[in-house]
Design goal:
This is Flp pilus assembly CpaF family ATPase. GO terms for molecular function: ATP hydrolysis activity. It comes from Nonomuraea rubra. By secondary structure, this protein is α/β, with parallel strands linked by helices. It is built from 13 helices and 15 strands. Helix 1 packs across helix 2, helix 10 packs across helix 12 and helix 11 crosses helix 12. The longest helix has 25 residues.
């Protein structure tokens, strides 16, 4: 067991020495250390502090930490400085799916095998948990994000790609949910391999991306929408210029220059304490169109940016991708209409349906199910793909893939743009 009081004390000492070195460098006109240099220097400082602690323990007639205990302390101090404190072991565990925290000592962890277990506390107090989240909010993303009584909600992307959502003061105790990004660099072949999509759907989606079809991925929370979006984006040729627009950076396409060398990632900016400086998703989508994009990728549609995005899709930016919350592929059209009513344009439903019909080519619906009879693993799979065919007072569509016997999508209806898809290698596996 690691002594977290020691970790906290040593983290403060190392942090103070690191800050002192930064001030010295600045006073001597030296360039600031890079992130990696700072981490390496911090490791040396951690070793120094632990060595001083061992000598102190011996001087007091006590047993110094063992080699194993020192290694655990060093890892804990480094995680507290540059990682997420006691959450780090959970984020390092490849089998962890989600982490839900209802106060510092009420920690629930969901695993890939379907288990949900209670975990050890992640902080000594709720105040310490809030402090940890505040540190993460200050250094994650493109700009510092406040998390306090005036700003009790927070969404951000952790360094490992996981998505964190936190609230305080609107709940009895601070609450945090972390959704793990277990698949970072993911390809269609990976999703075929783990059963998310069939080979036929994989070939279909590859051809749809190559044919520059506008695709909306729909599903419930934690169904795997973002992972599927990443896989689709990785089918885009590296020569194309991509603009991604997100509330909190999550897609991370710019982190793989060998796949996407020309990427600009936009992140929504929240207002400051005076209510100034906000840059909304809708504004970012509009700005992205002026940045010479080959394709615009909107990480998640949750509001009035939908009208701007649909307009972008109808103005020559074919091949756009996005995700949206919905309970079925058909419900997507109603969800979009609801968001459009909230936009400044106040589009009536008829006009929204016309816009949808001219903008979206396919809706891909992904869902999740805990199959206890198949090893208890949480299963994610594409169950439905709907092609948009036009508008006649409402959006006309046909379900080209429907749920098969095991829930996974199987071919159902002819695809109207089959010739275009065939030009990019897709031939249906039969109806």
């Amino acid at each position: 067991m690691i002594d977290h009081s020691l970790v906290k004390r040593f983290r403060q000492e190392v942090g103070d020495r690191l800050a002192h070195q930064r001030r010295l460098d600045q006073a001597n006109g030296l360039p600031p250390m890079t992130g990696e240099d700072e981490r390496q220097f911090a490791r040396a400082l951690i070793s120094q502090v632990l060595e001083e602690h061992a000598r102190s323990e011996i001087g007091l007639g006590r047993t110094p930490p063992t080699v194993e205990e020192e290694e655990a302390l060093a890892a804990g101090i480094h995680a507290a400085l540059f990682g997420v404190g006691r959450l780090q072991p959970l984020l390092d565990d490849g089998e962890v799916e989600n982490i839900d925290i209802n106060g510092c000592d009420r920690v629930f962890v969901s695993y890939a095998d379907g288990q949900e277990l209670m975990h050890d506390p992640v902080a000594d107090s709720d105040d310490e948990l809030i402090e940890l989240i505040q540190i993460l909010a200050a250094y994650s993303g493109l700009s510092s994000r406040p998390f306090d009584t005036a700003n009790p909600q927070l969404d951000l992307r952790l360094p490992d790609g996981s998505r964190l959502s936190a609230v305080m003061d609107v709940t009895v105790r601070p609450a945090v949910s972390i959704r793990r990004a277990r698949l970072g660099k993911v390809f269609m072949s990976d999703l075929v391999g783990n059963g998310t999509i069939s080979q036929d759907i994989g070939r279909f989606l590859k051809a749809a991306v190559a044919a520059r079809k506008n695709i909306m991925i729909a599903g419930s929370t934690n169904a795997g929408k973002t992972t599927l979006l990443r896989a689709l984006a990785n089918e885009i040729p590296p020569a194309e210029r991509l603009i991604t627009v997100e509330r909190a950076l999550e897609l991370g396409l710019d982190q793989f220059p060998e796949l996407h060398p020309n990427v600009v990632a936009f992140e929504q900016r929240l207002p400051n304490s005076e209510g100034q400086g906000e840059i909304s998703m809708a504004e970012l989508v509009r700005r992205s169109l002026r940045m010479n994009p080959s394709r615009v990728i909107v990480g998640e549609v949750l509001g009035d940016e939908i009208v701007t995005m649909l307009n972008a899709m109808t103005q020559g930016n074919d091949g756009s991708l996005s995700t949206i919350h919905a309970n079925s592929s058909m419900e997507v059209f109603n969800r979009i209409s609801t968001y459009a009513l909230q936009a400044s344009e106040r589009l009536p439903i008829d006009a929204t349906h016309m816009l949808i019909a001219g903008a979206i080519d396919f809706v891909v619906f992904i869902e999740k199910r805990n199959d206890y009879h198949v090893g208890g693993r949480l299963r994610r799979y594409v169950s439905s793909i709907r092609e948009v065919n036009g508008c006649d007072g409402r959006v006309l569509s046909s379900e080209v893939f429907v749920p098969g016997p095991d829930g996974s999508g199987v071919p159902h209806a002819p695809i109207s743009c089959l010739e275009e898809l065939a030009a990019h290698g897709y031939t249906p596996g039969g109806w």
